[in-house]
Amino acid sequence: MGAHNSETKAKSSAEFLAEATRILEAREVTHGGKLDNHSKLAVLWSAYLTIKLGVRVELNPSDAATLMLLLKVARQHSGAYNDDDDVDAVSYAAIAGELRAVEQASIPKFAPDRFEQQFMSAPPSFLRTMIRKAKRAERRAKRGAR
Asked: What is the pTM of this model?
C-alpha cells in the first residue's frame, strides 16, 4: 500500500471493499479467527481498564473491533493520507458488525460478581486465566452457532 500521492488514481468504494476482503481472508489464515482474537483483546482491555480506572469495565469482542476502528479513524487524521488506514477502517467496521451479530446470538455476558472478584484481587497469572476463559466462551459460542 503506502501513502497516496497525486499520481495515484483514487480508489473506488468497491476497490476499498475488495482490498479489505482480501486482507481479512489473508489475516484469518495468518492470525486465526476474528472471534478468538477480538475475544482475547476484549478480555485484556477489560482487565487493564478495570485495574486502571478502579471500576468494572466489561468489553466484548465487538467492542474490541470498534476500538480498533477508532484507532484507524485517529490515524486518518494524523500525518499524510495513507489509504491503508481506510482499508483497515473498513475491515474493522466489518469485523465489529460480524462480531456484534455473533454476540447477539450466542456469547454469554460476563457475570459481574465473578468478574469483579477475578480482576480486583487478580494474581499475576490473571492474564492466562482470562485468555482461558475467552477460549471457553469462544467454544461455547461456536457450539451455539451450529
From this structure: 0.65
